[in-house]
Write a structure and sequence with these properties.
Helix 1 (3-10) runs antiparallel to helix 3. The protein is globular. Strand 7 (161-165) and strand 8 (171-175) form a beta hairpin. The chain is an alpha/beta fold. It is built from nine helices and eight strands. It has three domains: 3-84, Uridine Diphospho-n-acetylenolpyruvylglucosamine Reductase, domain 2 (2-Layer Sandwich), CATH 3.30.43; 92-158, Uridine Diphospho-n-acetylenolpyruvylglucosamine Reductase, domain 3 (2-Layer Sandwich); 160-237, no CATH class. The structure holds flavin-adenine dinucleotide. Flavin-adenine dinucleotide (FAD) is lined by residues 29-30, 64-72, 75-76, 85, 106, 128-130, 133-135, 137-139, 141-142, 144-146, 234-235.
Length: 237
């Protein structure tokens, strides 16, 4: 990217780097692919992520969110700006043992969460094999699961609410209690209802995890909850 673009991105207050080492480091993930990005950003909060994403969109850079980069299909690499949520955003708070809920940052690693929960007799059900690296943000975006999926389901089944940054920089909280994105939600629901007969025909009942593609069927079961379609969207929404 040009020096002027880098300055504009850095003026948002977010840590943004475009040196050769950073670009090479973020050119790969656990896949066989390699794409050198223009740079990488390391937001510390949703506000910083929002500001840097808006600036990148203004500069016509594509955005690729990234956790630990353990994906196998090249979905954590891209030619624009990599937004790395794993360096910061590692806070765990608001543990509620009665409701069995906890608030975690997108960069929290699964093993870190399970170490936190263990003294309380709990663990996070979906047991992705890369638990020592995989971030909760990456697990939600991939709708990750592991050997215990038939019992515990997939990550999407355990997401109560998320704070998200949209491509236009808006920050919104979405979940089963609804969301401020009613226009977007209603539009998706309308489109899916038109296709519901074909979806019912293609996807047999009882399928725990369907890959690839958006969680359209999950969303139709619970159309108030945009998390159902966010989970598994691989950073594209
Ligand atoms: C040896 C090996 C074993 C594996 N085993 C399993 C397994 O058992 N089950 C399984 O499901 N997967 C498995 N995987 C794939 C991968 O490890 C998991 O899907 C993991 O949960 C991805 O997490 P991550 O933090 O590495 O995400 P990344 O690879 O960094 O990103 C994954 C996707 O999420 C998006 N993303 C990341 N963070 C965010 C964010 N904060 N906001 C929005 N989008 C975001 C990225 O753009 C990308 O599309 C395995 C991979 C390897 C290499």
């Amino acid at each position: 990217m040009t020096d002027a673009t880098l300055r504009r991105l850095q003026q948002t207050g977010c840590d943004v780097r475009a040196d050769r080492l950073t670009r090479i480091l973020f050119a790969t993930d656990a896949s066989i692919y390699q794409i050198e990005p223009e740079g990488a950003a390391f937001p510390r909060s949703a506000q910083e992520a929002s500001a840097v994403i808006s600036a990148a969109i203004d500069a016509e850079l594509s955005i690729t969110p990234r956790g630990a980069g353990t994906s196998l299909v090249g979905n954590a690499i891209g030619d624009g700006l990599i937004v790395d949520f794993s360096r910061h955003n590692r806070g765990i708070s608001e543990l509620d043992l009665e409701k069995r809920s906890v608030r975690v940052g997108a960069g929290v690693v699964l093993d870190q969460l399970n170490n936190f929960l263990k003294p309380h007799g709990f663990c996070f059900g979906p047991d992705v094999a890369t638990s020592s690296r995989a971030t909760i943000g990456g697990m939600i975006a991939n709708n990750s699961s592991g050997a215990r999926a038939p019992f515990y389901g997939t990550t999407a089944d355990h997401v109560l609410a998320t704070e998200i940054v949209l491509a236009d920089g808006r920050i919104a909280k979405i979940g089963s209690q609804g969301s401020p994105l009613e226009g977007e939600r209603a539009q998706i629901e309308r489109l899916l209802c038109q296709q519901s007969a074909e979806m019912a025909e293609r996807w047999p009942p009882g399928m725990i995890k369907r890959w690839p593609g958006y969680g359209l069927k999950r969303f139709l079961r619970s159309p108030q909850n945009l998390n159902e379609i966010l989970a598994g969207s691989e950073g594209t929404l």
